[in-house]
Amino acid sequence: MEGKVNAFFADRSFGFITDENGENRYFHLTKVVNPAAIKIDAEVTFKPIEREQGLGAVDIKVHFHGEHIFIADEKIKIAAIKQYNIYQKMQPLAREIKDNTIVSIGLLMNRIKPETAKAPAETEELLTYLEIELFHAESIIFTSHEIDIDEALSYLQLLPIRFIDKR
Q1: Domain ranges in the chain?
Q2: What region, left, alpha or beta, does residue 150 occupy, with left being phi > 0 and alpha being psi -120 to 50 degrees?
Q3: Which CATH class is domain 68-97+117-165?
Q4: CA 142 from centroid of its chain's CA atoms
Q5: Which of 43, 48, 145, 134 lies closest to 89 in space, CA to CA?
Q6: 43 sits in which H/E element
Q7: Helix, strand, or coil (residue 10)
Q8: pLDDT tens digits for 117-139?
Q9: Is 20 exposed, middle or buried (0-12, 13-18, 19+ CB in 10 A)?
Q10: CATH code linked to domain 2-62
């Protein structure tokens, strides 16, 4: 069934939807697939139910208007997104080599001697990845160095798409 949110009380996590027949239906935020998108006048689809206290709604999905999302200059068609997930992985630190570096004899001798093992914290860092899996067997991967992962997540959570948190 289709409807429109006519009232939402965020502090109490509930609201009301006017259904396609003009009747008001109670809903709780826990029954919304994409809760970050709930707001007054949002268009929704839902499963109608009858409760002891009156009409209600469950399995609520807020409609998202638009065909594409943009993340870090990447244009992604919403209908092509199968799911998205977050994971973390240790990566070697990027080391910059300066051009025209003059190496002193002392530095050269230190390189000839065997190096002591460095602590992992000095050679690796923990990166967070956002992977968007598309239906045509392709994935787009962003790192926390490229984008603000939390901001991208808040936008993706508006969509009725499966999310897996592997952190």
Answers
A1: 2-62, 68-97+117-165
A2: alpha
A3: alpha beta
A4: 11
A5: 145
A6: strand 43-51
A7: coil
A8: 555 556 788 899 999 999 988 99
A9: exposed
A10: 2.40.50.140
**Furthest-apart CA atoms within the chain: distance in Å:** 86
98 by DSSP, 3-state: which?
coil
78 backbone dihedrals φ, ψ, rounded to 5°:
-60, -40
pLDDT recorded at residue 160: 73
What is the DSSP-derived secondary structure letter of residue 102? P
**Interatomic CA distance for residues 67 and 160, integer angstroms:** 13
d(CA 122, CA 74): 32
Q: Name the token pair of 137.
A: 């067997």
pLDDT for the residue 152? 85
Q: Tell whether the model's pLDDT for residue 102 goes beyond 60.
A: no
- This prediction has a pTM of 0.52
pLDDT per residue over 12-53, tens digit each?
999 999 999 999 999 999 998 878 778 899 899 999 999 999
Contacts for 128 with CB less than 8 Å, ≥ 6 apart? 86, 87, 88, 143, 144, 149, 167
Secondary structure letter of residue 145 according to DSSP: T
Task: Name, in order, each residue with C-beta under 8 angstroms of 135's C-beta and a sequence gap of 6 or more.
Answer: 80, 81, 82
Whole-number pLDDT of residue 105: 46
CA distance 166 to 33: 20
